[in-house]
Write a structure and sequence with these properties.
With 356 residues, this protein is α/β, with parallel strands linked by helices. The protein contains 15 helices and 8 strands.
């Protein structure tokens, strides 16, 4: 490896780890590294080209828009569209901050000069990295681009798509926000939709499910379109919305809702909705097929059990089954009853099988 290539590699290592001393030895002023013209026109491609070119010998003219700068974290403002909706706590933010503290900021964020706040910048992507740097009270390494609104949200969406770090309902909210301002073509490009039909499906969920219920459930990691569609369909009926709100409020007042993870909150609401839909015979066969499409084994439609103290829902899926009761105390009491008699019931079940 020749001396020039060694120096370029040293520059890259210094920039990635935030080693200002190494930068100074490389002759780089104010912790700013200039790079060559990108090979792609997209914001993501331009940033990739900026990092890649640091290890290559270049002689052509520098593109000023691809200068990697250290910016005051307090001067970086959020994007025009929120993509991480319904997140109250980010458990991974502290670990990200610790990683940056120990190893430096590995990947620059992408920003543009703020259109209405002189001296400030607006984030296209890298919001969590900015928050982590703000918590550490250190500068943020960023690429500054003169982006239009359309270019900013498309770059933001492309980054989310590549990292696959948004839940389905967060994608829905992001698309619904963009749809208020941008054309469907721009929204489709930002959310990575292959066709405009997917944009309609995403925005439809937000339009039908009340925002207070969405905020109460949260980001619901691991929950996809099919189950959100069941909730959205149920919310077309005012009585179902009222029932969900009353039940959530009851659990909040008891201090139980806050202790539940977001995915568990969604599962609880879905169970409640399914009981109501089966009771009113509004859970279509298509919805049943879609709900059980996530399992390889065939599943029977949910069965409504009428009891003296209210209705219960029994559902079998593959190798598992569950019984859902609206009253939590009664559900726990029934679970304790079954547990106490489980050995006896299992012997009866096995004996029945032997007779056949």
């Amino acid at each position: 490896m020749n001396e020039k290539r060694k120096r370029n590699k040293s520059k890259l290592s210094a920039i990635m780890t935030g080693n200002n001393a190494a930068l100074a030895r490389s002759g780089v002023q104010d912790a700013v590294e200039t790079v060559a013209k990108p090979r792609e026109n997209s914001a993501v491609g331009r940033l990739g080209a900026a990092l890649h070119s640091l290890t290559e010998q270049r002689t052509e003219t520098i593109d000023p828009s691809l200068v990697i700068k250290n910016l005051d974290a307090k001067l970086l403002m959020p994007s025009i569209a929120m993509d991480r909706a319904f997140e109250t706590d980010d458990d991974e933010l502290s670990s990200l901050a610790q990683s940056i503290l120990e190893n430096g900021q590995q990947v620059p964020v992408l920003v543009r000069p703020h259109p209405s706040m002189p001296g400030h910048y607006q984030i296209a992507y890298g919001h969590r990295r900015v928050k982590a740097c703000q918590s550490l009270d250190i500068a943020v390494r960023a690429v500054v681009e003169n982006l239009t609104d359309e270019q900013l949200v498309i770059a933001q969406g492309k980054e989310n798509e590549e990292r696959k770090n948004l839940t389905y309902i967060q994608q829905c909210f992001f698309a619904a926000q963009l749809a208020k301002t941008f054309t469907r073509e721009v929204v489709a490009a930002a959310v990575g939709a292959g066709d405009k039909t997917r944009v309609s499906k995403l925005t439809s969920i937000i339009r039908r499910v009340p925002n207070d219920i969405l905020e109460s459930i949260g980001s619901a990691p691991g929950v996809g379109r099919v189950k959100w569609e069941v909730i959205a369909k149920a919310c077309e009926e005012p009585e179902h919305i009222a029932s969900v709100r009353d039940s959530i409020l009851e659990l909040k007042n008891a201090g139980k809702w806050q202790a539940m993870a977001s995915a568990d909150r969604f599962a609880w609401v879905l169970d409640l909705i399914q009981v109501a839909l089966v009771k009113s015979a509004k859970l279509s066969s298509q919805s049943e097929d879609e709900l059980k499409s996530g399992t390889k084994a065939a599943a029977k439609p949910p069965t409504l059990i009428h009891t003296s103290s209210g209705n219960a829902l029994m559902e079998a899926r593959g190798r598992a089954f569950k019984i859902v009761l609206k009253d939590e105390q009664r559900a726990q009491a029934f679970a304790d009853y079954l547990q106490g008699r489980m050995n006896e019931l299992w012997r009866e079940f096995d004996g029945q099988g032997d007779d056949t």
